[in-house]
Amino acid sequence: MQRYALLLLFVPLLSGCWALLEGPAGDKTSRILRDYRSKVERPSVFPAREKETKDESRNETAPPPPGKVSCTLETAVELALKGNRDFIARKEDLHLQALSLAQARYAWDPQLSTTVSYLLEDERQGGARGASSGTLSGGVTQKLPWGGSVSLSGSSSAYQHHAAKQNRSASASLSASWNQPLLKGFGVDVALESMIQARRNLIVELRRFERYRQRFAIQTISRFFNLIRLADVVENSRRNFETLLQQYSQAEALFAVDRVPEMDLFRAEREMEQARNTLEEARDTFQAAKDDFKVYLGLSSSTEFAIVPPAWMKAAQKKKLTGEERPTRLPFPLSECIRAALANRLDLKNIEFAKEDAARAVQIAGNDLLPALDLTFHFGLDHDPVQDFEEMNFDASASAGLTFGIPWDSRAERDAFLKARIAEARAQRALELQKDQIRREVRDRYRSANLVRLTLYIQNKIRRSAEKRLKIAEFRFRRGEISNRDVMDAQEALLQAENRYIRALTDQWIRDLDLAESMGTLEVGSGGMPEGLGWGGPAEEAGGETEEDGGGEDDEEE
Predict the structure, then answer these.
(1) Residue 384 belongs to some domain of the structure
(2) pTM higher than 0.90 for the full model?
(3) What CA–CA distance (Å, rounded) separates 92 from 354?
(4) Distances in Å between the alpha carbon of 81 and those of 202, 226, 300, 477?
(5) Per-residue pLDDT tens digits for 330-373
(6) Which residue from 167, 333, 471, 477 could staple onto 551, CB 3.0 to 4.6 Å apart?
(7) Within 10 A of 125 (CB to CB), how many other CB atoms are there?
(8) What whole-number distance in Å separates Cα of residue 154 and Cα of residue 173?
(9) Taking a C-beta distance cutoff of 8 angstroms, is the pair 551, 48 a contact?
(10) Lowest model confidence (mean pLDDT) among 62-66, 71-75, 433-437
(11) What's 372's DSSP letter?
């Protein structure tokens, strides 16, 4: 009896070792994600464009200010990938979806079950010594790809009374069965539905995550550029205040010698105080935005860093006009953008997936309307109770049968079938709606990208004109031809022109990224930075065609 007890204790230990061999769940999800990332489609259609020389200065950055840790655009994106809480939560959602697929796969692995019991009875009243008994049972079940299942089970038990050595018994049994639906529940598609849906759900989630990475990169870059713009507003406000402070000092000196009226002195003082207030407000706005950016990056509020603008931005600010500049336009027509979007957009592919899932759900719901007809086979080995396992003489038995379920009440199945048909029609309409929304979104962003180019050109001219106006006003003021009011107006005009130019300069890059994202051609590298706008293809003539003069969509899906 003792050797049977040791055998019973060995079985659960063996089951635990089997679980350890499977490895932790985190390793499973990581392997699944590595296998399925390649299934997310990369951009395959790009709008045709003119040949363009690559601007290497876009990747350069100016040196950081002394005494602070530099925060370049690349550094900000890298910090956001590591510390942004929403991004971390989205990555966790991806692993949860991979875990769902691992669970669906596990359901198709052999399912093992074991039960061990041992009972010791103490009957010492009247001199009796008691008895002991033990039972071991186990089985394995395997799903079949046609909807059936096969199972194998066995059990053994032993009993012994310690007072009477001959009062003992042992029994064992073994059975195998096969169950196969022939109508309802029959078919590979029906049987593997949970596995198929789990795989497709993971692909859908990977596409969503890739789209989220694109929007996250654009949002991070936009926030970074907003800080640069606010920092330039602070710098422009500081220079404006210093200039007005100098003009106020000049007005005081001129008033002392009766060169200007007292009203000009009051006006200079008022403008100087207003500039001081504007400077403090700009600093407060910049610090608030900087604190928000720290929270966005997942940094502590005590972290100090200096925003370092890209070198190409500084170069654009210092660029001199030659008088031959013309407003630029996108190097490809609108029709090419729409064609690329309909071929590349991952959210559109997800909706196409949903339409296919809805059609498959209709087939499965139709299968549920069939009556249940199951074919079963059973084979077993059994024997009469004996005193010892060596005395066992097994008898074999086998049986086969058909089970037919009469569908007297199939109201729930019919309702489920109608709901599946309605869901399929809705999925078709959702697909058509998404295509229309993509067309509208691409049109809007195409026009916005062209408009910001025109705005940048105009703001650059206004900025240079405001610089010339200020120089002329200062010269005429020193000659006594105009009052200081004209100088202050020119100074205010230059301040507004500088701020608007910086906004247009950053908006152009963001609008280009938005357009590339809406076309599905934006690719984000492992470091989180866009590796390019995805605008490639053979060099052809593509002048800036608008929606009205040729950028139609009649042939976009040919």
Answers:
(1) no
(2) no
(3) 23
(4) 21, 19, 16, 54
(5) 888 999 999 999 999 999 999 999 999 999 999 999 999 999 99
(6) 333
(7) 7
(8) 5
(9) no
(10) 62-66
(11) E
- Structure tokens, 192: 């593997």
Backbone φ and ψ for 528, nearest 5 degrees, come out as: 95, -10
**44 belongs to a structural domain:** no
For the chain, how many structural domains are there in total?
1
Spatial separation of the C-alpha atoms in residues 441 and 317, rounded to whole Å? 31
Instruction: Work out the pLDDT band at 538, boundaries 50, 70, 90.
Output: very low
Q: Which of 179-183, 443-447, 525-529 has the lowest mean pLDDT?
A: 525-529
Tell me the residue ranges of DSSP E strands in 391-543.
395-405
Residue 419 belongs to domain with CATH number: 1.20.1600.10
Query: What order do you get walking across the sheet with 111-121 strand by strand?
Result: 111-121, 131-143, 149-161, 168-181, 372-382, 395-405
Distance of alpha carbon 339 from alpha carbon 45, whole angstroms: 8
> β-strand 168-181 against 305-307: which pairing, if any?
unpaired
* Contact indicator for 516, 43 with CB cutoff of 8 Å: no
Does residue 359 fall inside a structural domain? yes
Q: Which residues contact 399 (CB under 8 A, 6 or more apart)?
A: 376, 377, 378
Share of the chain above pLDDT 70, in %: 78
Task: Give the domain range for residue 347.
Answer: 324-371+411-558
Mean pLDDT of the chain: 80
Q: Say how far apart CA 354 and CA 425 lie, in whole Å.
A: 11
* Burial class of residue 391, CB neighbours in 10 A (0-12, 13-18, 19+): exposed
How much is the pLDDT for 261?
81
Q: Are strands 111-121 and 69-71 parallel, antiparallel or unpaired?
A: unpaired
**170 compared with 441, residue with greater pLDDT:** 441
Please list the residues that pair with 170 across neighbouring strands.
158, 386
Asked if residues 173 and 394 have their Cβ atoms less than 8 Å apart, the reply is: no
Distance CA 196, CA 192 (A): 6
Please write the tens of the pLDDT for every residue from 38-50: 667 667 666 765 4
> How distant, in Å, are the alpha carbons of 123, 127, 279, 348 from that of 2?
19, 23, 90, 67
Q: Are 303 and 251 in contact (CB under 8 A)?
A: no
Summarised one tens digit per residue, pLDDT across range 429-469 is: 999 999 999 999 999 999 999 999 899 889 888 988 888 99
- Return the H-helix or E-strand segment holding 181: strand 168-181
How many angstroms separate the CA atoms of 14 and 338, rounded? 60
Residue 91 in tokens: 């990555």
The answer to whether the beta carbons of residues 45 and 339 sit under 8 Å apart is: yes
Residue 194: half-sphere exposure toward Cβ, Cα within 13 Å: 14
Q: Is 52 exposed, middle or buried (0-12, 13-18, 19+ CB in 10 A)?
A: exposed
Q: Give dist(CA 506, CA 456) in Å, integer.
A: 10
- pLDDT by residue (tens digit) across 205-257? 999 999 999 999 999 999 999 998 898 889 888 988 888 888 888 888 878 87
Assigned domain for 356 exists:
yes
